[in-house]
């Protein structure tokens, strides 16, 4: 059977792939949209074998080897590239670094996911590799307004979600993190460099019965570090006694929606999309 004609002007795509299911959903979505060739830049220690098997070609590189990765990609004639999957910014503080990465870390007055991955994106684009939104080809994975679960938020949870949204948008302006956990009006944890799961567990040590809100800042650069929730997130929430998840409608990537919602229903948790008044993530380049 012939592949469908491209609907995006992209026939050859590069996926810079980290950990988890996200890169596999991107590859599937791209092929469904008619992208004929999908190659993978495989981040060592993060990208999984299941992802590599879906690619037409694979090039492995370490997180500290940007020169090697960019040079390889620049010679391959890609129409576009995107980042997908979990690559911890902490990986840039471990292992061997090429001179380019050493220079980034030395010169950056502020180090966070936005500055580090933003610089990586800039390096690819400087080499002629067009970087597109990491949300591209993820149709159906960005839920809208309202509850996804059997139950909605309780009045107290709704108040805490509202408080979490306010705080998340404020800290987002400083690129601190995307996740805030609130209990009875008290902020128990704000995500920093440790990531969402560690922030959840930190909140759980302070008290059970909190809610979680996850947000992309106003003016978010959708080429990297987009908000993602999956089954692992829900399992961490249950361990920490978090009762509800609030998120910006159209601005959160929800992986394995059926499994996530089933897990939440089984454990009496609520998952609810909130209208933030901000534009949804782009699904096409």
Describe the structure.
The longest helix is centred in the middle third of the chain and has 18 residues, at 155-172. The relative contact order is 0.14. The chain is globular and about 55 Å long. With 285 residues, it is an alpha/beta fold. The strands form 3 sheets. Strands 5-12-10-8-6-7 form a 6-stranded mixed beta sheet. The model has no long low-confidence stretch (mean pLDDT 90). It has 9 helices and 12 strands.
Protein traits:
single chain, 285 residues, alpha/beta, 33% helix, 18% strand
Report Rg.
19 Å
- Order of adjacent strands in the largest pleated sheet: 5-12-10-8-6-7
- String of helices and strands: EHEHEHEHHEHEEHEEHEEHE
Total number of helices: 9
Strand content: 15-25%
Give the biggest beta sheet: 6 strands, mixed
Low-confidence stretches: none
Which structural class fits the helix and strand makeup? Answer: alpha/beta
**Based on CA inertia axes, which overall geometry fits?**
globular
> Helicity, in percent?
25-40%
Number of strands: 12
Mean residue pLDDT: 90
Termini Cα gap: 26 Å
Topology:
Blueprint: E1 12-17, H1 22-32, E2 37-43, H2 49-52, E3 58-61, H3 66-74, E4 80-84, H4 99-107, H5 113-126, E5 146-147, H6 155-172, E6 179-183, E7 186-190, H7 196-206, E8 211-214, E9 228-229, H8 231-239, E10 244-248, E11 253-254, H9 257-266, E12 270-274
Parallel strand pairs: 1-2, 1-4, 2-3, 8-10, 9-11, 10-12
Antiparallel strand pairs: 5-12, 6-7, 6-8
């Amino acid at each position: 059977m012939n592949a469908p004609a491209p609907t995006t002007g992209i026939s050859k795509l590069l996926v810079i792939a980290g950990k988890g299911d996200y890169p596999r959903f991107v590859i599937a979505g791209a092929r469904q949209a008619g992208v004929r060739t999908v190659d993978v830049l495989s981040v060592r220690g993060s990208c999984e074998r299941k992802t590599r098997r879906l690619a037409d070609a694979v090039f492995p590189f370490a997180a500290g080897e940007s020169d090697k990765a960019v040079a390889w990609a620049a010679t391959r004639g890609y129409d576009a590239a995107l980042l997908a999957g979990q690559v911890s910014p902490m990986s840039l503080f471990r292992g061997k670094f090429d001179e380019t990465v050493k220079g980034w870390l030395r010169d950056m007055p502020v180090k966070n996911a936005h500055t580090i991955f933003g610089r990586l994106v800039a390096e690819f684009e400087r080499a002629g590799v067009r970087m597109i939104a990491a949300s591209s080809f993820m149709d159906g994975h960005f839920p809208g307004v309202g509850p996804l679960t059997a139950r909605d938020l309780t009045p107290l949870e709704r108040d805490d979600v509202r408080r979490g949204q306010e705080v998340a948008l404020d800290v987002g302006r400083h690129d601190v993190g995307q996740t805030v956990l609130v209990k009875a009006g008290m902020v128990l944890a704000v995500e920093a460099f440790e990531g969402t799961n560690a922030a959840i567990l930190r909140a759980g040590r302070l008290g059970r019965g909190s809610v979680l809100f996850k947000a992309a800042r106003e003016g978010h650069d959708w080429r990297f570090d987009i908000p993602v929730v999956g089954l692992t997130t829900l399992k961490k929430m249950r361990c920490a006694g978090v009762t509800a998840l609030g998120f910006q409608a159209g601005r959160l990537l929800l992986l394995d929606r059926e499994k996530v919602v089933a897990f939440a229903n089984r454990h009496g948790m609520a998952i609810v999309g909130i209208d933030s008044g901000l534009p949804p993530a782009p699904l096409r380049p």
